[in-house]
Task: structure prediction
Amino acid sequence: MRRFFALCSLLLLSAACAATADPTPTLAPLSGRIAADGSSTVGPITQAMANKFIPAHPAVEVVVDISGTGGGFRKFCAGETDISDASRPINQTESEACAANGIEYVELPVAFDGLAVLTNLENQFVSCLTVDELHRIWRDETIANWQEVRPDFPDWPLNLYGAGLDSGTYDYFTAAIVGEEGVSRMDFVGSEDDNELVAGIAADPYALGFFGLSYYDENRDKLRLVAIDGGMGCVEPNAETVARALYQPLSRPLFIYVNLGRLAENPTLAAFTSYYLQHAPQTVETVGYIPLTDLLYELAEQRLSARIPGSVFAGTGSQVGLSLADLLAQEK
Result:
């Protein structure tokens, strides 16, 4: 009986102590504003991430603007944004601008994309173009007629549409097709808004244009896709040919760049960036892009965790044919 009362006393004392002890501290809810800007290709991914993240964190605001990759880097390196969406790696000029303003960044690959080459639905004679034909078209302003591209094509005018000069898509396309980033003929209709390019090509029977594959997937009923012969036969871009690097040379990785100083100071930005990488495989696919391999996402998460500054491309901009896995693995 004495043992029973002793045990009861002990239990009552424990309960009283538990009632008076300080409760386990809880983390403060996330709040604040995250500003992202840049690529029209990557913007929809970042927006989709924000749409998934905010319901669990209603005090957080994520603003996603689109100025093109180049325009986004100008704002990012001036300290105006937290995240820069990019459809190509940062180049030397942009990297130097960030350094001049004391801004360090971590480069994180988030998806693969292919650049689609398109014609109007009325164009029934072009099913495939070689890289050499595309090179001549986009380098030589004297080519103004489809018959000048290939003798068996009809005597039709040739009107060109493509990503605007501030777009990373333009930079990558010119690097891959013309052979030099940012160099092409200038007599084309350019825009950083891919929806404008879709509308332009859809309304012009003589059009030939290019933009990110996801915008074609959303507009299959309005445009015709052209296969590309990079030397191994005609290949159309799709999830398999891009992920397996069969669609060459117009397959590329997509990136976000995150301000490292703000990442260290702002738990909301840190949480959103971690969430971005963890949920990228599913979200990327639902938006219409191609997920990276599991290994690449793992390497990207290691890069974020270690807060590794700079670019694996050493600030050289668009790099055609380089293995992203090899570049990231060198940091392990």
